[in-house]
Amino acid sequence: MKIRKINSSDASQFLQMLLQLDQETTNMMYEPTERPREVEYVQAMIEQHQNSQSLILVAEDASNIVGFLTAERGCFLRIRHSAYIVTGILKQYQGLGLGSKFFDYLEEWAKNNNLSRLELTVMKHNESAIHLYQKKGFEIEGVKRRSLKVTEGYIDEYYMAKLL
Predict the structure, then answer these.
(1) Domain extents in the chain
(2) To the nearest 10°, the Cα dihedral for 86, 91, 96, 102?
(3) CATH node for 2-115
(4) pLDDT tens digits, residue range 87-120?
């Protein structure tokens, strides 16, 4: 498995991985029918992240993208020191250490880019993700009650952050 920064030529394969992830889990934001399916949309998103000095990482096996991590850096001076994190890994590739590798790369990138705060939200019942984030030094800062409405009803999320 290889972790690397995304590039524009990955847009089609990245989109396919995201669409598969939407089908596999309810722990992500998008319902299976909500995600835009145009490769051009994904290419624009990749370029926007690159232009804003944000980060998109992908994990790939021999031939496919199997996971991702985004770190969207704050765009205003008062929050430029922070980044909001989103990550997802296809079910078949979970438990292989990719999440830890993503967060190791992320922390190095954050330090090299003068960030001092990494933050994310996670559904309260997503124990494996919470365990990973805590293992990587994230702490729960609060609860976002009734944050999401999923098939099983309203879901609370934890606000989590790591100070560097």
Answers:
(1) 2-115
(2) -10
(3) 3.40.630.30
(4) 999 999 999 999 999 999 999 999 999 999 999 9
